[in-house]
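Reopening this ticket.

The earlier resolution said the output was attached, but the attachment link was broken on my side. Pasting everything inline this time so it's all in one place.
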Amino acid sequence: MASSVEGKGNEGANIEPKTGVSFPIKLGVDGHGTPLDLNGVGLRKKSIMGFGLKIYSFGIYADNNKLREQVRSKFGEGVNEVTKEIFELVIDSDAPMMVRLVMVFGGLTMSLVRKSLDEGIGASIKKLTGQKHEELLNKLMGEVQGGLKLPTGSIIEISRLPGFVLQTKVKGEVVGKTESELLCRAYFNMYLGEDPFDQDAKESFGKFLISSF
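Inline output:
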């Protein structure tokens, strides 16, 4: 697999192979004492004028202990393959998770990233509910200025906190925080649903999650 947690970099980090971006194997998340585990890395591409541009690399982190407890509770101990139902459990759970985005395309602004996220989440919400729920889209990025420049290497972290709170950090600052089960589900559905941004990253996440069963 091209995009997985198997690409070893420095000790304590893994590399997204198509971009060379390094992701720490554990990351802390606000309000949660236990660091989250890196389960998969991938690449978000976007087609612009017929060109497939690399927009950002991403790492998907999770509280594996909590998710594994939920998987065992629902499916028992004999889990040896990742099913659609397991991914649905992860998407619907309120266990802490995070996707760290690292910009790889130079010249990005916050407005362009917001547009890309809005399109992805809007489509994800529609898949889940059949409706657009446009009022939720504005809550993800809060009041961050659209003209804010995001040079290569800039980091955005979007986390699901307990109680279905979705928090967005841009360059280390919290810019959006909203309680919405639907928004949480829609966001992680983009990475772990039936039509993920990076299939290899999704598969890696699933294999890593059940590796201790």
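Reporter confirms the inline version is readable. The chain has a mean pLDDT of 88. Helices lie at 64-75, 84-92, 110-129, 134-141, 181-192, 199-209.
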